[in-house]
Amino acid sequence: MSVSPRIVVLAGGVGGSRFVLGVRGALRSRGIGDTASALTVVVNTGDDLWLSGVRLQPDVDSLTYALAGVNDAERGWGRQGDSERVNEELQAWGAGWPWFTLGDLDLGTHLARTGWLRDGLTPTEVIERMSRRWPLGARLLPMTDTEVDTVVVLHDGTRLHFQEWWTRHRAALAPTRFENPGISEAAPAPGVVEAIAQAEAVLLAPSNPVVSIGPILDVTGVREALRATAAPVVGVSPIIGGRVVRGMADVCLTAIGVETSAAAVAGLYGSRGDAGLLDAWLIAEEDEALAGEVAGFGIRPVVTPLWMTDPARSAALAESALIAAGL
């Protein structure tokens, strides 16, 4: 491929980071040197929060660190080789959350971000400035410049920030719904709709469909842009063999009445031919028996290995997604 394609990925979290690394790797294998011009990632900011006076953007940082090669791959979050002296001092003062660790290097990122935000930069401008430090090989865009943190509503009416429910309680408290206050008034960040409109392929990463991809889709104008683009929209199942690959997406799916299966998540996104989003849906070899059910939604099923256990497998999965998009 001599001309760089225009690829847009919607992503969030660890699974999204691995997939985006795979897309970058697949593009490089195709001879695309300037992957930053070819690859745009629209990142979930629904699980952002203020803590100890600084603004945290967990999914933005996971993607940034992963693309920069400085992420802690073993833990799945934060910086490689980080220390926690400042976090210990914060906890000694009774500040922050004792169950939510901020590494020292990670905290440096949050301080820089907060300072730029207080200077008047938008989240889009902050991410662009962060991207100058390392050659990421991709352009990162937040889904919106508006703060739309995720609130988890429990059956007794208790409302928790998503990070408290996810990190402190490990999703053990059964939710009745998830809310993103203010999202109905939020506009897509500058460049998001344009990138989707100009794309040659749009890929939905195997991220949590409820709290990672869901908030991106709920920003006014994003679903419409996906339905209107001439590019094929290809999704990758986050479910393999009826189980979530990572995290607690099964709990989230149950809360909204969706079965934890590759076919059910395809049905949640829906077919573009039926006012949904997908043209094709990648499912694992373990779920080949569900291909007919996916096709019944009007979505073309593609059976392929989905495990991203190393960079080569992640790139192979991304290559399958690009081929499914006709590239």
Features:
single chain, 327 residues, alpha/beta, Rossmann fold, seven-stranded parallel sheet, three-stranded antiparallel sheet, 14 helices, 14 strands, globular
Quick structural gist:
With 327 residues, the protein is α/β, with parallel strands linked by helices.
The overall strand count is 14
Q: Radius of gyration over alpha carbons? A: 19 Å
Helical region count?
A: 14
CATH homology superfamily: CofD-like domains
CA-based shape: globular
Q: Briefly note the CATH topology name.
A: Rossmann fold
The CATH class designation is Alpha Beta
Largest sheet: 7 strands, parallel
Order of H and E elements? EHHEEEHHHHEEEHEHEHHEEEHHEHEH
**Span between termini:** 9 Å
Catalogue the unreliable spans: none
CATH architect. name: 3-Layer(aba) Sandwich
Output mean pLDDT. 95
Beta-strand share of residues: 15-25%
Order of strands side by side in the largest beta sheet?
5-2-1-9-10-13-14
Helix amount, in percent? 25-40%
Which class do the helix and strand fractions yield? alpha/beta
- How many domain modules? 1
Architecture overview:
The chain is an alpha/beta fold. It has a single domain (7-146, 190-324), classed as 3-Layer(aba) Sandwich (Rossmann fold). It has 14 helices and 14 strands. It has helices at 13-29, 35-38, 58-68, 85-92, 104-118, 123-130, 162-168, 192-198, 213-218, 222-228, 249-255, 262-269, 291-296, 311-324; strands at 7-11, 39-43, 49-51, 54-56, 139-142, 151-154, 159-161, 175-179, 201-204, 233-236, 239-240, 243-244, 280-283, 300-303. The strands form four sheets. A seven-stranded parallel β-sheet has the order 5-2-1-9-10-13-14, sandwiched between helices. A three-stranded antiparallel β-sheet has the order 7-6-8. It has a two-stranded antiparallel ribbon with strand order 3-4. A hairpin with a 2-residue loop joins strand 11 (239-240) and strand 12 (243-244).
